[in-house]
Amino acid sequence: MTMQIADTVSLSASDARARAHAAAARDNLRTEPRAVRIVIIALAMIFLGVFVVLPLVVVFAQAFSRGILAYLAALADPEALSAIKLTLVVAAISVGLNLVFGLVAAWAIAKFEFPGKTFLITLIDLPFSVSPVISGLVFVLLFGAQGYFGGWLRDHDIQILFAVPGIALATTFVTFPFVARALIPLMQEQGTQEEEAAVSLGASGLQTFFRVTLPNIKWGVLYGVLLCNARAMGEFGAVSVVSGHIRGETNTMPLLVEILYNEYQFVAAFAIASLLAMLALITLIAKTVLERHLDEGQDASDH
Amino acid sequence: MTIEVRNLVKKFGSFAALDGVDLKVNDGELLALLGPSGSGKTTLLRIIAGLDWPDSGEVAFNGEDALAQGARERHVGFVFQHYALFRHMTVFENVAFGLRVQPRAVRKDEATIRARVRELLDLVQLDWLADRYPSQLSGGQRQRIALARALAIEPRILLLDEPFGALDAKVRKELRKWLRSLHHEINVTSIFVTHDQEEALEVANRVVVMDKGKIEQIGSPDDVYESPATAFVHSFIGESIELPVQIADGVIRLGDRPLRLAADGLAPGASRLFVRRHDMLVGPPGSGAFEGAVQHVRNFGPVQRAEVALSGGETIEIDAPRNRELRAGDTIGLEPRRYRIFAG
Hints:
The complex is a heterodimer. Chain A is mainly α. Chain A has helices at residues 5-8, 13-29, 34-63, 67-76, 78-111, 117-124, 126-129, 132-143, 150-155, 164-175, 177-190, 193-200, 205-234, 237-243, 253-262, 266-301. In chain B, β12 (251-254) and β13 (257-259) form a beta hairpin. Chain B is elongated and about 80 Å long. The two termini of chain B are 40 Å apart.
C-alpha cells in the first residue's frame, strides 16, 4: 500500500482550506449530544488505526523482525542498491520534465485565452483517469518490438522498453498532472495584473517570469513537485509493464518489493518497503508545511 | 507629451468596446475618462498603455505611432484599480522594480536607485513604509505606492484605471485632492478612468464622457455639467429630471398639457426635456411652465427634496431651498431656470 501513497494524498491545497472553514462552521452549529460525538470520533480513530497506522507499523515491524543488522544487510544488497538508484534517477527525470511541462501548461492555461483551452485542461487530467497499467501498455504499443516505432528503434539500436528511458517515460506520463494541477488554480486566482504591471514598468518576458510570476507561485511549485516525486517513486503499475523486471537493472523499489515478497524474503521486502513508507511520512510532513505557506500567501492577497 | 487617438475600434466578440473613438490629449493635461461600466473607458486606457490592441485605428504619442511599440517600450506609467503591487516584494522593492529591470546599459547604480526610490516614497509621503509588504498596507497606502512605482520609470504618460475605485469614500476624497496637487507638481500628461462623476469633475482639467464605446462629449468640467451635449451626458452627470415631451406647431406638450416654454428652433416630434433638480424654481400656482401637487417632502441639510406630481402625468423630484417650506398637498408652479431638450 505504500506504493500508492500519492493516491491517498489530497491533490489541492484548497481542499485543506475548505476543510478548515467547514470545521469552523461545524463548531458554531454543533448540536449533537456528547455521546454521539464520542462514538463518531472513536469510530473514525479505530478505522484510521486499523487501515492506516497498523499497516505502517507492520511494515517497520517486519523490516526489523530479524534485527537491525539483517535490515541493513537487506538494504546493502546490490539488487536493493540498484533499485534505489534507479528509482531516484527515474524520479529525478520525471519530476524535472513535469516541472517544465507543468509550468508551461499552467502558464498557458491561466494567463492566456486560446481555442482548445478547455480540451487541454481535460487532457491534463487524463493520466489520473487511466489505469496505470494501460499507461504502461501505451508505451509498449508505441516502442515495443511489434509497436509503431519498434522497427525504427531496433534499426537504430535504441533501447526504450525494458530500460531506463521507458521507465522514465511511463513514470512521467503517470505523474504529469501533479505540477500543472497544483499551479492552474493558483495562477488563475492571481490573474495577470502583476505581470501587466511588470511589463508596463519595462520588464522583459523573462524578467517578468522570474521576478514576478515564479516568486508568486513558488510554494505551489514545491507542492506540485513534492506530490509528483512521491508518486514517481511509488509508481508500480505503469513501470511494471515497461520495465521487464531485469534484476539489478530495471527493477525500481516498488517492483523489487513485490519480487522479494513473492520469493518469501520478507525482511528484504519490508526493508525496501520501509524506505517507501518513510518517503510517504516525509512527504506528508512537507505537504503540511507547504499548505501552511500556500494559505499564508492566500491570506496576504485577500484584501 | 501629447496623445492622439484616431478612429479606434475594439471588439470583444460581437460586443464593440470601442466604436470609433477620436481623442486628443494635450501636453501636461489631467484628463478624466468618465462613463458607466461597459462604456469602453478602461479598454481605451489599456490600448493607450499597450496592454490591449485595437482592431483598427491609430494611437500616436507626440505624433509618433505608438501601436508600433509594445507596452514595455512605451514608457507609460499604469496604475491599476486593484493596485497590482508585487506581493512578494517590500514597498521599497516594488518602487525600485522599474529601475532594476532596465537594460544593463542604462541601468543606474544601486546608490542612485536607492536615492530615487527614497525620493519617490517621500513624494507620496510614505517613506516610513519602505520595509513593509503590500499586504500590511491600507488600500489608500497601496494605491499611493502603486503610483510611486509607476512614476519611478519617469513615464511620458501616466494612466490611472479607476485609481480610487476600491477605496472607501473618505480616503477617496483625500486622495483626489492629493492626486490633483501631485499632478500640479510633476505635470506629466495623465489620463484617469472613473465612473464617479464627482471625481472626474473635481480632479480633471478636461472630462471625456463615454457611453457604449463612443465619446459623447469632451469639455471642461463646467462644460459637461452646465451644457451637456447629449441626452446621455445630461442624465449621467448631475441629478436630472427627465420628461417625455411632444413638440408640434411650435408648442411643447407634456402629456396633453401645453408648457409655457419657447419651442423656437426645435424639431417637431417626440423629445426629452432635461432639468437639474435644483434648477426647478418654486412659485405660486399658475406661475411658471409647470404646475403640480407636492406629494412628499424630506429635508436634506440646506435643501428640501419634494416629490411633485405634475399635471400632465409625470412625478418628479426637485431640490428647493428651504426659504419657503413646502408641505404635502401644496399646489405649486415650477419654472425651470435652465433646461435642455433633446430629440428622440
